[in-house]
Amino acid sequence: MEILILPILVFLFVIIVIVLFNRLSIYKKKVDKSWNALQIQLKKQNNIPADQNKISPDPGLENARHEYNKIVSQYNKIIQKFPTSFMANMAGYEARELEREGIGF
Question: I need a surface site. Which of 37, 50, 83, 85 has the fewest CB within 10 A?
């Protein structure tokens, strides 16, 4: 009976590790996708003449920035909680900074 417990525990540990890495990679993909969308909006904003920007700021940029900040906040929380933090450190995942208004290229 004792011989069966160790393989079961190892199997459970491997499953947990796989699930945690999968969760981390899903959130990292969300962050990267949101970052790309934000960069596209920033490029659009930079192509608009400066006086037109002052009159009507682009709501697409604000929405992209808000979405990015929301996803990054979730990602940062996940990589700081145990046991995901342990896996994140092993895999080299690092916290991302929030995007502030006025930062562009």
Answer: 50
Peptide bond between residue 83 and the one before it cis (omega within 30 degrees of 0): yes
Query: Where do the DSSP E strands lie in 41-102?
Result: none
* Structure confidence by residue, pLDDT tens digits, 50-65: 555 555 566 778 888 8
pTM for the whole structure: 0.70
Write the burial class of residue 79 (CB in 10 Å: 0-12 exposed, 13-18 middle, 19+ buried).
buried
| Res. 98: pLDDT tops 90 | no
Of 101, 96, 102, the C-alpha closest to 35 is 96
Are 45 and 58 spatial neighbours (Cβ–Cβ below 8 Å)? Answer: yes
Distance, in Å, from the CA atom of 75 to the CA atom of 31, rounded to the nearest integer, reads: 8
Q: What are the residues whose beta carbons fall under 8 Å from the beta carbon of 17, sequence distance 6 or more?
A: 87
In sequence order, which residues have a C-beta less than 8 Å from that of residue 65 and are 6 or more positions away? 38, 41, 99, 101
